[in-house]
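Example record for the data management plan.
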Amino acid sequence: MKKRIVCFGDSLTWGADPAGGPRLEERWPLILQDALGADYTVIEEGQGGRTIGTDDPVEGEKNGMRYLVPCLETHSPFDLLIIMLGTNDCKRKYNYSDLDITWDMERFLEKMFTHRHFQAEDRYQVLLIAPPPINDGIHHSPLGDLFAYDEGKARSEHLAASFAPLAERFGCHFMDAAQYAQSSPVDGIHLDAENETRLGMAIAEFVREIL
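Corresponding structural encoding:
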């Protein structure tokens, strides 16, 4: 039977082009599918602007925690849930501290693991990925003001260090995407085709070890 993998994330998972072009074909979930082959089914659940658990007062309908359970139940049964969120929580409009974002991810994981235990009999594994930090491209990016430039960049640089202990405490797998890919200097946030490919290939190696 094929192994099923759900990829739950934001625009870095959806495949937004940092240069503002159409959706990338070389986005990491598709790279993951190609690398793993026919014995796996990779399901894309990326949404631009998605937060960990905060309502967007302007764009609306971006709260990852509100969509989590419907997503899990829609795609059930599956074998692995990959979560990569946190970049959008660094935006100016939320004014979050590092600790705020960590607490939000803690609540997200609590909700997810509670549902997994009581509704899915603990049958799937979880991989939490810290997204690549915002880089200096944010200084001249059209998205710079949205992320308060260096303020958002600084918050994003703490995500890996904040999320790793949570993964250990909840007993899920963890990856720091910055070890394999970097945000594009074009907008400072999104992944270009080369880095989407690098990340997808790295995740594929990790998946082969745990499934």
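Summary line stored alongside the record: The chain has a mean pLDDT of 98.
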